[in-house]
Amino acid sequence: VTSTELVQVPSTSVAVDKSEALTLMKLITHMDDLDDVSQVSANFDIADDVMAEIEDKL
Amino acid sequence: MAGHSKWANIKHRKGAQDAKRAKIFTRLIRELTVAARQGGGDPESNPRLRAAMTTARGSNMPNDTITKAIKRGTGEIAGMVIEEVNYEGYGPGGVAILVECQTDNKNRTTAEVRHVFTKFNGNLGANGCVSYLFERKGMVVLDGTRCDLEAAMDAAIEAGAEDVEEEGEVISVTTAMEDLHAVSAALHEADCR
Q1: Predicted-complex ipTM score
Q2: Could you read off the pLDDT of B153-176 as tens digits, one per residue?
Q3: Touching check for B33 and chain A: CB below 8 Å?
Q4: Residue from B52, B47, B177, B10 nearest A42 by CA
Q5: Is A26 on the interface with B (CB under 8 A)?
């Protein structure tokens, strides 16, 4: 078990294309890095290949 | 659903190289305090506190620190007042974003959160604009390279889990909030570590 936690699970998701995926993931990462933030949840759906591509740029 | 587990996936992999231990502790302590304040200091009747304690122990937080954080929440020890504040907004592409914060200074937090939204083409919305899209669930994340998917699935579902998903090297198990403890315990017992 890597982690056990309470999360916010979205009921629907929004497809995000390549052009917006990087900015979105940057937003989420930076938000998560703020000291007062305990959890960030979002309802994005990003294709695996796009995700793999942007992951290194975060 | 899909989006969420991907994010869990990234966090998990990033976490492996994450040296920000102090920050993780700060977060866990705040979560313990807020959970105890809202639902009382008894983990048996407070699932949120129980989850926070499990996570804290999993991160090797000393028991003494855990107890103090809980007592601060119940008011047995006086301390800084930490409030829980949620922010809701939209990111690029109209993605709904829910930001949960625990802070001793709301003005500072609001400014910081708004700044991040604005900087990355998002915007901070009114309270309630996206929170209805989310439901609080328990989630147990397993390392798929060190644990058998089928064994995990059997144990998890037996204990009342709602969903088991495998994505790359990560297996994520979703449960109702109150079943989190039982499912997590069952997975430990099934040797899924």
Answers
A1: 0.93
A2: 899 999 999 989 887 778 889 999
A3: no
A4: B10
A5: yes
